[in-house]
Every structure is written in C-alpha cells, then in structure tokens.
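To illustrate the input format used throughout this study, we show a single complete record. The first block contains the structure-token representation of the backbone; no residue identities are included at this stage. The design step must infer an amino acid for every position from geometry alone.
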C-alpha cells in the first residue's frame, strides 16, 4: 500500500518512496510530453494525444505513476491553447493575407518563451521524478489532486 499524507490545506505529500520502475514510468510521462512537443510542434494537438495515450496505458499503475501521468497531461492543455492560437494565427498571416501586426509578433514571442519555459520545467520534473521525488506544480498540482484519487 502506498503511503501518503495530507496536510492542513489538503495537499497530498508522498511519504512513499517509489520503486525504480515506478520512478521511471512517472519520469517517462514528462519525457513523453516533451518529445511529443518536439515532434508535433507544427500541429499542437499531437503532444496532447501522445501524452493522453501514455496516461491511458498507465492509468492502472500505482498512485505515484498515475498522479505524474495526469500531471503531465494537464500541463499539455495550457501548451495546447497557446500553440493552437499561435498556429492558426500564423496560418492566417501566411496564407490568408492577414496583416503581420505588432500583436501577432508579440504573441509569437510570448508563445516561444512559454514553450521554452515549459520545456525547461518538464525536463526538471522528469529528472526529479526519475530520482523518486514528487514534483508539484503550482497550478496543475491541486488540479491533479482533485482528479487522481489514491
């Protein structure tokens, strides 16, 4: 049985030390989202689908693995929204003669910074999770706690 404790705010803290194969699967959930972003960058939905398939394959795993697979999946939704807007706006600028405005340039620069930050945070999460440490992102952590039950 996996041990965890809940603090005063209801946030789950892991006391459980995952086994090697659990840490590897949990870490792979972050790596899957990272590789999917790199492979499917022109089409934003690819990374969400790949991470979803990885979650489906591991949803019957231990709580540690399920939690981190869902955590990685939820983080892909914010990336999907930013990249979808960037993709479709860029398509309209390139093919439909929408003017290349300062707003579009600012959005693309913001999207690039957002994607680079997501890549850096995902790499850090994969490394820490591979070591058996629990990674808890500010926005997605509480949401994951609500969705994934022990």
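Output of the design step:
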């Amino acid at each position: 049985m996996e041990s965890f404790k809940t603090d005063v705010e209801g946030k789950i803290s892991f006391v459980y030390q995952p086994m090697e194969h659990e840490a590897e699967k949990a870490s792979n959930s972050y790596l899957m989202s990272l590789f999917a972003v790199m492979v499917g960058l022109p089409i934003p939905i690819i990374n969400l689908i790949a991470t979803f398939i990885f979650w489906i394959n591991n949803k019957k795993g231990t709580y540690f693995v399920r939690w981190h697979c869902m955590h990685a999946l939820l983080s892909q939704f914010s990336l999907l929204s930013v990249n979808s807007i960037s993709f479709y706006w860029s398509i309209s600028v390139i093919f439909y003669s929408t003017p290349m405005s300062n707003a579009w340039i600012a959005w693309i620069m913001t999207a690039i910074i957002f994607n680079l930050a997501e890549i850096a945070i995902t790499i850090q999460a994969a490394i820490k999770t591979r070591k058996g440490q629990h990674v808890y992102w500010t926005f997605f952590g509480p949401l994951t706690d609500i969705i994934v039950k022990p």
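Structural context for interpreting the output: The radius of gyration is 17 Å. The chain has a mean pLDDT of 85.
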